[in-house]
Design a protein that fits this description.
It catalyses: Hydrolysis of alkylated DNA, releasing 3-methyladenine, 3-methylguanine, 7-methylguanine and 7-methyladenine. With about 220 residues, the protein is mainly alpha-helical. It has 13 helices and no strands.
Length: about 220
């Protein structure tokens, strides 16, 4: 019987990522196989703040390549990319960059919340996960997936798991040789075995998913 490692981590680092990978390899032979064949996954870290939150909004329901293209065009026009500067752009400018009407609404709402003082992303970094989730989900367009990705990549929480992520669902079906793609609830149940390193497991599964994409443009996040 393998006993799970007890960890009290605030942030995931390269050192703790390595610890997590070793622990997961002991807990799950399928994850161990990914590690053996593909090596360590990228850290996939992003700087906390408005630009990253906006980029995650852009990544909802589209390929990462498409979202990155829109984000890069935005960064080429809005320098620096602050909430105040973003709010200067009108609908025509944002649609020309590649924003949908819905994402214009969401990103403007986030920018307004920050400039009005309703949302303080710096203070958010010191809060517990439940409070962070509650604060962010008050804003239109931000659901659990968006919060999960922000917690996982920007705030480097070690045990966050975006159960509704399409890439993770596809990767788990293939890795576990399941007859059908698991539901988010079923994936969450599978991921229970990966505590307290679920954010590391997510990185391993994305690593595996991308390795099976055969160079095609794929959507990692849903």
């Amino acid at each position: 019987m393998i006993l799970k490692e007890t960890v009290e981590l605030k942030l995931l680092t390269q050192e703790s990522l390595t610890r997590g990978l070793i622990a997961l390899a002991k807990l799950d032979s399928d994850l161990a196989h990914i590690l053996e064949t593909l090596g360590n996954p990228p850290m996939w870290e992003r700087e906390a703040g408005f630009p990253t939150l906006l980029r995650i909004i852009l990544e909802q329901q589209v390929s990462l390549a498409a979202a990155r293209a829109v984000f890069n065009r935005l960064c080429g026009i809005v320098i620096p990319l602050t909430p105040e500067n973003f709010l200067i752009l009108d609908d025509v400018q944002l649609k020309t960059i590649g924003f949908s009407r819905q994402k214009i609404l969401y990103c403007r709402g986030i920018a307004d919340a920050i400039t009005s003082g309703q949302l303080d992303l710096t203070k958010l970094e010191t809060m517990d996960e439940t409070t962070i989730r509650s604060e962010l989900k008050r804003l239109k367009g931000i659901g659990d997936w968006t919060v999960d990705i922000y917690l996982l990549m920007a705030l480097q929480h070690p045990d966050v798991f975006p159960k509704g992520d399409l890439g993770l669902l596809i990767a788990t079906q293939k890795l576990k040789k399941l007859a059908a793609r698991p539901t988010p609830a079923e994936l969450e149940a599978i991921a229970e075995n990966w505590r307290p390193w679920r954010a590391v497991a997510a990185r391993l599964l994305w690593h595996y998913y991308l390795s099976n994409a055969n160079g095609k443009s794929v959507t990692v996040y849903q």
